[in-house]
Amino acid sequence: GKLSHRSARGAVLTDISLSAMTLQTTDDKKHKIPFSPPMKTWSDARIRTVEMDRVARSALDISPIRVTEFVGPSGFWLIVPALFLLMLVVTWNADKIIPGTWLYDDLLKYFPGGPEMFKTVGSGAAVPATLAHVVESWYLDTSRLQKYGVERGSALWFKWIGTCMLEGFGAMKRIDAIVEKQTLEA
C-alpha cells in the first residue's frame, strides 16, 4: 500500500475478497490492496498473503529475522565505553583534573604518558570520536535495527543506540551475532 514502515505497523486486516484485502492502520485509515491477479478460490488466500508479505518485506529491506532482545557489551567492550566517557569528562572538565584529585593522582597515573597525556589525548579526540559514534549509531539504525524490526523510539532501540554511541562497532557485532544465531536455528 506504499505506506511507511511506521504507518503500516499495527495494521489490521478488516476485509478480504477474492480480488483485494482491506487493512486499517492505527490512524483509522483504510487501505485497499488488490490481489494481482485476483484469487480463484479462498484456499489461495494464505499462500497469496504470505507471498505479498515476503515481497513487501523484501522491497522495504525488512528481514523476517527479528531482534527482540538487548545484549550488552562484555569484556573489552565494557572498558572502551568507560574510557570514552572518561575522555569526554576530561574534555569538558579538564580544568578540574588537577594534581591532588583522585582522577589525576590515582586513576590517570596508569595512562601511558600519565594524566597530562590523557588530558591532551582527550581534548583532541573527544569531538571526532563523538561525531564518529553519532555516524555509527545512524548506520546501526538504518542498516540493522530497522531491518530486524526494532522500532525507533522504543526502549530496545534506545538501548542499542545508547551503547552504540558509547562503543560503536561492538553493538553492530552483537546484533550480527544475534542474527547469525537465529539464522542457524531456522
Overall average pLDDT: 84
Terminal-residue CA separation: 29 Å
Q: Strands across the major sheet, in which order? A: 1-2-3
Q: Which stretches of 5+ consecutive residues score pLDDT under 50? A: none
Major sheet summary line: 3 strands, antiparallel
In percent, how helical is the residue content?
55-70%
Q: In what range is the share of β-strand residues?
A: 5-15%
Strand tally: 3
Q: Supply Rg.
A: 24 Å
Task: Provide the succession of SSEs.
Answer: HEEEHHHHHH
Structure description:
By secondary structure, the protein is mainly α. It is built from seven helices and three strands. The protein has a three-stranded antiparallel β-sheet with strand order 1-2-3, with no helix packed on it. A hairpin with a 5-residue loop joins strand 2 and strand 3. Helix 5 packs antiparallel against helix 6. The radius of gyration is 24 Å and the shape is elongated.
Question: Can you give me a brief rundown of this structure?
Answer:
The chain is mainly alpha-helical and 186 residues long. 56% of the residues lie in helices and 8% in strands.
Question: Which keywords apply here?
Answer:
186 residues; 7 helices; single chain; 8% strand; 3 strands; mainly alpha
